[in-house]
């Protein structure tokens, strides 16, 4: 009869020894040989009539080894299920195991040892006492004016005057890398762009007045644009946005088309185009609707920022011990491709963080009975479709949308990904109910700088 013993060999690290006697594996070995005999196709014998002695001679050693190892695996699995062992990854066979010891001519007791890494018990970080901030971005008149103007331009009528006459002209241009007098540099940058005259610094704009298609100016980005516009143009040209040497390069900027947008008038027709689902009659109502949209956008950004803070609170202040030596050995030997010690040392910190986050989310899901329903999955499938169609469907109650969602629920990969996404969303929804953040008003510019500083910190 098989026996299984377990001993502790380190922090959350146990050794399990499985011993099997001949009575544990011989019956299945004999049965397997008979199955081979029924299926074997050997010249000179009818199928199913091959003598057992010949089958044993031809296949016995490998079948014997398979059955011994299968019985060991079965005993190990049964033991872990009975003991309810919560382990990381899979048991690692120890080096002292040697399948070559298995000998069909000597059916004896065999012992195999395995190392397991045990999952730790831990308590989630104290979210109710976390020092967190929920930011509220102030929506200013200037922000509303900018958005109203953008919507007027977007829904306006584009004309093509012959010459540039003012700040509101749209210039379709080609940025061509050159020397300071406009001689093009071989293999230099050559990129199309479209921008308003008012994007240039005020002192530079007059240089464009009176220019027409095929005219050009030679300029340095550092002297033609303020920081904000310069950054996105540098980025569009393929440079880092803070690359000072790139900003001092010379470009021949060639006009390929002059445009002018006659802004849409602020009237009920325009309001209906912008907000088809709302009854808007006056400019004041329209501006209030615009303000609400801007506020919703920044509120969602603020919520993302709070959730990111919650993520770090959970990760940084939840104390979890790991069987580090086991996990490093598993990383080195447990995958499809073995890793070097140097690779393991380099990759372990990120691996441990990911593992820690998985344990935290699993605990939150289990302790709070967070579930993903078929309705959740269906709604996500519909949301994805609506986002692909960019909201051009109208509503999500049409029969063909239901059919699409039901088809997606038959896709195993979609369901796996969707469950993970929905669980993650619900974990953060639950976490938000636990925290008591301080509310703080902030300007759009301050909030954007804070986000940028955070991104720099994490790259």
Keywords for this entry:
Chitinase A, domain 3, 17% strand, single chain, Trigger factor, domain 2, 4-stranded antiparallel beta sheet, alpha+beta, Alpha-Beta Plaits, 459 residues, 3 domains, 15 helices, 5-stranded antiparallel beta sheet
Number of domains: 3
Give the number of helices: 15
Content of β-strand:
15-25%
Fold-level CATH name of the largest domain = Trigger factor, domain 2
CATH architecture descriptor name of the largest domain: Orthogonal Bundle
Structural class: alpha+beta
In short:
The chain has 459 residues and is of the alpha+beta class.
Description of the structure:
This protein has 459 residues and is an alpha+beta fold. The chain has 3 domains: 3-118, Alpha-Beta Plaits; 157-262, Roll (Chitinase A, domain 3), CATH 3.10.50; 295-457, Trigger factor, domain 2 (Orthogonal Bundle), CATH 1.10.3120. The protein has helices spanning 22-39, 52-83, 141-154, 202-205, 221-224, 227-236, 244-247, 268-274, 283-317, 324-333, 341-367, 374-388, 399-408, 412-434, 444-457; strands at residues 3-10, 13-20, 87-93, 110-118, 133-137, 157-159, 169-178, 190-196, 216-220, 250-262, 438-442. Strands 6, 7, 8, 9 and 10 form a 5-stranded antiparallel β-sheet that branches. It has a 4-stranded antiparallel β-sheet with strand order 1-2-4-3. Helix 3 (141-154) packs across helix 9 (283-317). The mean pLDDT is 92.
């Amino acid at each position: 009869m098989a026996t299984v013993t377990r001993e502790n060999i380190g922090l959350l690290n146990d050794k399990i020894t499985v011993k099997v006697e001949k009575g544990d594996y011989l019956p299945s070995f004999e049965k397997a040989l008979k199955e081979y005999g029924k299926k074997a196709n050997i010249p000179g014998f009818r199928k199913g009539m091959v003598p057992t002695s010949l089958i044993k001679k031809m296949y016995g050693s490998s079948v014997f080894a398979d059955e011994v190892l299968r019985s060991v695996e079965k005993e190990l699995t049964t033991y872990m299920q009975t003991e309810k062992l919560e382990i990381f990854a899979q048991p690692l066979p120890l080096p002292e195991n040697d399948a070559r010891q298995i000998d069909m001519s000597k059916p004896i007791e065999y012992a195999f040892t395995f190392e397991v890494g045990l999952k730790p018990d831990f308590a989630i970080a104290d979210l109710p006492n976390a020092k967190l901030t929920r930011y509220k971005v102030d929506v200013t008149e200037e922000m509303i004016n900018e958005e109203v103007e953008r919507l007027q331009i977007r829904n306006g009528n584009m004309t093509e005057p012959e010459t540039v006459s003012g700040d509101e002209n749209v210039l379709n241009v080609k940025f061509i890398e050159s020397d300071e007098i406009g001689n093009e540099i071989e293999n230099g940058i050559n990129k199309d762009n479209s921008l308003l005259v008012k994007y240039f610094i005020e002192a530079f704009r007059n240089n464009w007045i009176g220019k027409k298609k095929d005219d050009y100016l030679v300029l340095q980005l550092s002297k033609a644009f303020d920081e904000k516009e310069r950054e996105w143009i540098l980025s569009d040209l393929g440079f880092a946005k803070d690359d000072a040497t790139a900003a001092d390069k010379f470009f021949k900027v060639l006009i390929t088309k002059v445009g002018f947008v006659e802004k849409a008038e602020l009237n009920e027709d325009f309001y209906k185009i912008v907000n088809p689902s709302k009854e808007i009659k006056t400019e004041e109502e329209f501006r209030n609707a615009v303000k609400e949209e801007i506020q919703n956008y920044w509120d969602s950004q603020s919520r993302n920022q709070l959730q990111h803070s919650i993520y770090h609170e959970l990760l940084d202040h939840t104390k979890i011990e790991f069987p580090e030596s086991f996990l490093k050995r598993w990383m080195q030997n447990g995958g499809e491709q073995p890793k070097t010690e140097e690779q393991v040392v380099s990759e372990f910190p990120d691996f441990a963080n990911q593992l820690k986050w998985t344990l935290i989310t699993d605990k939150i899901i289990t302790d709070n009975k967070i579930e993903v329903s078929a309705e959740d999955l269906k709604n996500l499938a519909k949301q994805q479709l609506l986002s692909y169609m960019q909201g051009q469907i109208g509503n999500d109650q049409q029969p063909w949308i239901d059919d699409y969602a039901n088809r997606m629920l038959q896709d195993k990969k979609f369901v796996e990904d969707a469950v993970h996404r929905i669980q993650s969303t619900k974990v953060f929804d639950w976490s938000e109910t636990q925290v008591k953040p301080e509310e703080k008003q902030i300007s759009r510019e301050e909030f954007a700088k804070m986000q940028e500083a955070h991104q720099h910190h994490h790259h």
